[in-house]
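Inverse folding, one chain.
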């Protein structure tokens, strides 16, 4: 059984304006499904059964809980009966993704490996292989890394500086073109070992953001942090342009595990009302 999933969904989504003026960024739709529901679906069909939403603020939590409720409908549409109810972070004003992780692990008594995902990424990953890699290497943290093609700008990402065995020495945030230590970028898809609870307690208020605070602390203090080379699809849906790109990728059949709620054939999606009129 895969470990529980904590989704960090506390951001304001300002780069996606105006699409996020009246809804949280994870609920913006790719084709006919909210971004975060697409991600959860990909994880659920590969065995994940416990989902915790680390949402920040009353409005975000209310919108997400109205969408998923306890998760019965989500799992029923996938034909899954053996699941736990969705959980939501209590109204705690966290200071970032690492702070949310610390709070949720303690509040929900998680003392095992935990998957931590970002609520605005679309990723297609072989979860069994990812988990097996982590347990074989046994680091405190394994980060899914995506090799960015040469033609894409790397300046907006955290880039991993790697040892020959895929151990992460550090992340270089938003390097200028030509100065990056590799083309392997942080996808914000992680698996943490249970020891991370002690590290987060040790860091206290210094633990705010996973990429900005927690990972540098781990690498600088000698903790084993490994990179996992992601071979499947990944995109950070941070702007309307990236949302359009993700939508076109889905419609072109480039994202495995994506199932449409409405009739679809390759390279074409038809709204049900249009299909009805045609019929």
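Residues assigned per position:
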């Amino acid at each position: 059984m895969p470990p529980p999933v904590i989704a960090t969904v506390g951001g304001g989504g300002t780069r996606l304006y105006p699409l996020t003026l009246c809804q949280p960024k994870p609920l913006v739709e790719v084709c006919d499904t909210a971004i975060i529901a697409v991600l959860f679906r990909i994880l659920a069909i590969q065995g994940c059964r416990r989902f915790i939403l680390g949402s920040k603020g009353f409005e975000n939590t209310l919108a997400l809980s109205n969408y998923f409720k306890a998760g019965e409908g989500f799992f029923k549409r996938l034909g899954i009966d053996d699941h736990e109810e969705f959980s939501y972070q209590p109204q705690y004003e966290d200071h970032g993704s690492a702070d949310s992780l610390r709070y949720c692990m303690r509040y929900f008594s998680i003392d095992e490996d935990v998957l931590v995902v970002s609520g605005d990424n679309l990723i297609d990953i072989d979860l069994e292989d990812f988990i097996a890699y982590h347990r074989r290497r046994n680091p405190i943290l394994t980060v899914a890394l995506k090799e960015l093609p040469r033609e894409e700008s790397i300046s907006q990402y955290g880039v991993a500086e790697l040892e020959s065995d895929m151990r992460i020495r550090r992340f270089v945030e938003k390097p200028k073109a030509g100065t990056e230590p590799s083309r392997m970028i942080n996808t914000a898809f992680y698996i943490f070992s249970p020891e991370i609870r002690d590290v987060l307690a040790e860091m206290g208020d210094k633990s705010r953001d996973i990429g900005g605070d927690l990972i540098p602390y781990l690498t600088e203090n000698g903790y084993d942090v490994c990179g996992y080379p992601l071979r499947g699809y990944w995109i950070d849906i941070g702007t309307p342009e990236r949302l359009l790109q993700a939508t076109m990728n889905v419609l072109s059949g480039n994202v495995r595990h994506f199932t449409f709620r409405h009739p679809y054939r390759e390279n074409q999606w038809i709204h049900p009302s249009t299909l009805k009129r045609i019929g």
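The chain has one domain: 5-278. The chain has a mean pLDDT of 86.
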